[in-house]
């Protein structure tokens, strides 16, 4: 159907004509009547090729494989029966003789589009070449699908096809014969299946029906987790004031508040809430039962241009400070640059200026807009537009790398305050669901060995990211084709920072880099209810626990896949004399483009000296 070849074969029989309006209606109605039949054998292919392909598939999907094996297996293999489809996955469209350009080169093969992913199987007999050119990825990774060529080109009018840009930096092109103008079906199927919310379809998570031995929705219990930290105690109380998400819509239902604030009454707490952006009052998210040190998180105070004060908010922070006798001054780690915090006053925000017994420390982590803007040159460095383009220089000075560095710097300061002074700290940014989550959760990875276990790491993500309202749907653009100004790889940055610590402390983590890579893909995939929507209230209203699967069902069922064989439990924090220096996460950033390895592989920075436990 689609190829530009020296001696093209006769075109296949045309599909029955379908009016454009009727075709688009079929897309919106679930695509069932728009599904193509399984592809025929490749033109010119041999029986040997077909039998070898079927053998590869049957060996990778044998009948005795577990559910986790089926969910993790490389599905990018040609098979006429399509037995690689997962439970709930449906084939939507197929094309043979696809002419595809990726960062690894140009090749021809078969393409399949399901309601979950895009699969390309190249026409090659050599297994190494098959592995090189094959790809298979969730459609949720696709950021943009656009046509190129024909009337839009001024130079080469034979350059004609579809450009696919992914959110993880992969870019591919599908070439067509411009004389046949035969790209429209592929274009519409790609868009309709990649952007379900735009086309009013459900996420794949609601169709995915794989059975697992472990129910990941049972993994995180907030009361059990706070009990592990020694809460409640004489200073902290587990509150159900947010039952039904009626108090703060973007917070979890279970909150830990100072016992003195609870004793002061609901009206007192409501006044604190009304002074904080989106009502996100300071709440405890980590506690050391031995030292009494604690991490609290919140949003910014709404001081405004006139520095409007709130006596209740000041009293509330004093209650937090006095809950730990080691806290002489409550350090407020404001993730923002001071200039940005002042600029927020023009929009009614601000910071805790003039609070008694409090000290603000500004960590200079820039906004989502600055981070998003820095991605473009970073992508250009690692993934030139075509194979022939020359790569850019200067990855060490890339702003995206600098944004990672300041997260590591800020975490180092927070950890030092918790360990050296055994003090309470408050962490916030503007809204408390982006940079705040990065800092609190990374600090907990460093200081608490439980969060370096496989189970604990899952609990940490559920607590600090999912339950406290990181806006996964908006930041990752789930199901929509409008890039908007709110997309930003906040969670990706944090995973990168976790890898930085794994690189320096390779035996301190029970899980391996495979888990990080898996999560980096699955957060885009829309296969799990875990990462859908923007907060717990939205996931609850959409029935995620009842109608979708948790990503931890797979992780805990297949935990051997994600276990670090070098793991050696250590109870002490992962301390260094200075902040870690960013090293490129090679396994992630070079996986689509082998040339990127040469660009980032040689970048090295001297790492700080480690502080051993006995020297503390």
Automatic annotation (TrEMBL):
GO MF, one annotated term: phosphatidylinositol-3-phosphate phosphatase activity
Record Pfam families: Myotub-related
Top-level taxon: Eukaryota
Gene Ontology annotations for the cellular component aspect, listed alphabetically: cytoplasm; membrane
Myotubularin phosphatase domain segment(s): 216-589
Span list, region Disordered: 1-64
Catalytic residues identified in the record: 429
Comp. bias regions, Pro residues: 7-16
UniProt GO BP: phosphatidylinositol dephosphorylation
Binding site for substrate: 429-435
InterPro entries associated with the record: Myotubularin, Myotubularin-like_Pase_dom, PH-like_dom_sf, Prot-tyrosine_phosphatase-like, Tyr_Pase_AS
PANTHER family: MYOTUBULARIN-RELATED, PHOSPHATIDYLINOSITOL-3,5-BISPHOSPHATE 3-PHOSPHATASE
Family: Belongs to the protein-tyrosine phosphatase family. Non-receptor class myotubularin subfamily.
The protein's name: Myotubularin phosphatase domain-containing protein
């Amino acid at each position: 159907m689609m190829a530009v070849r020296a001696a093209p074969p006769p075109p296949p029989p045309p599909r029955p004509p379908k009016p454009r309006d009727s075709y688009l209606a079929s897309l919106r109605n679930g695509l069932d009547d728009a599904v193509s039949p399984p592809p025929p054998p490749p033109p010119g292919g041999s029986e040997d090729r077909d039998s070898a392909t079927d053998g590869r598939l049957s060996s990778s999907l044998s009948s005795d494989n577990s559910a986790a094996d089926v969910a993790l297996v490389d599905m990018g293999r040609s098979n006429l029966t399509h037995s690689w489809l997962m439970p709930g996955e449906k084939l939507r469209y197929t094309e043979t003789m696809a002419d595809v350009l990726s960062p690894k080169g140009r090749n021809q093969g078969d393409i399949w589009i399901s309601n979950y992913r895009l699969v390309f199987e190249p026409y090659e007999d050599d297994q190494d070449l098959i592995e090189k050119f094959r790809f298979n990825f969730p459609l949720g990774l696709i950021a943009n699908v656009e046509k190129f060529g024909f009337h839009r080109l001024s130079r080469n009018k034979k350059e004609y096809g579809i450009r696919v840009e992914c959110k993880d930096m992969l870019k591919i092109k599908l070439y067509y014969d411009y004389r046949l103008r035969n790209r429209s079906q592929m274009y519409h199927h790609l868009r309709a299946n990649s952007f379900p919310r735009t086309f009013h379809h459900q996420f794949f998570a609601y169709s995915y029906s794989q059975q697992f031995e472990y129910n990941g929705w049972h993994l995180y219990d907030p009361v059990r987790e706070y009990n592990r930290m020694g809460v409640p105690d004489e200073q902290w109380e587990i509150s159900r004031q947010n039952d039904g998400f009626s108090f703060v819509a973007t917070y979890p239902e279970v909150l830990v508040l100072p016992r003195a604030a609870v004793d002061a009454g609901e009206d007192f707490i409501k006044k604190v809430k009304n002074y904080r952006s989106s009502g996100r009052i300071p709440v405890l998210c980590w506690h050391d039962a031995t030292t009494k040190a604690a991490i609290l998180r919140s949003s910014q105070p709404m001081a405004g241009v006139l520095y409007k004060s709130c006596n209740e908010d000041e009293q509330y922070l004093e209650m937090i400070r006095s809950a730990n006798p080691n806290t002489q001054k409550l350090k407020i780690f404001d993730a923002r640059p001071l200039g940005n915090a002042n600029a927020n006053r023009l929009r009614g925000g601000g910071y805790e200026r003039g609070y008694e017994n409090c000290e603000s420390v500004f960590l200079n982590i820039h906004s989502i807009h600055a981070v998003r803007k820095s991605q473009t040159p970073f992508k250009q460095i690692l993934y030139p537009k075509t194979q022939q383009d020359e790569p850019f220089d200067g990855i060490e000075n890339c702003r995206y790398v600098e944004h990672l560095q300041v997260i590591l710097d800020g975490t180092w300061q927070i950890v030092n305050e918790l360990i050296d002074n055994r003090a309470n700290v408050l962490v916030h940014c503007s809204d408390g669901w982006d940079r705040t989550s990065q800092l609190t959760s990374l600090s907990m990875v460093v200081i608490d060995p439980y969060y370096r276990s496989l189970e604990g790491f899952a609990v940490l993500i559920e607590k600090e990211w999912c339950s406290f309202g990181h806006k996964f749907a908006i930041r990752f653009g789930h199901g929509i084709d409008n890039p908007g100004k709110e997309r930003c790889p906040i969670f990706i940055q944090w995973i990168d920072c976790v890898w930085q610590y794994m690189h320096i402390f390779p035996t301190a983590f029970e899980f391996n880099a495979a888990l990080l890579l898996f999560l980096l893909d699955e957060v885009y995939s829309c296969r799990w209810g875990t990462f859908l929507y923007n907060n717990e209230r939205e996931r609850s209203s959409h029935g995620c626990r009842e109608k979708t699967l948790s990503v931890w069902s797979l992780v805990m069922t297949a935990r051997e896949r994600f276990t670090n064989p070098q793991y050696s439990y250590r109870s002490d924090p992962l301390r260094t004399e200075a902040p870690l220096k960013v090293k490129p996460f090679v396994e992630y950033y070079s996986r689509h483009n082998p040339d990127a390895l040469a660009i980032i592989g040689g970048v090295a920075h001297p790492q700080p000296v480690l502080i051993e436990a006995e020297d503390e």
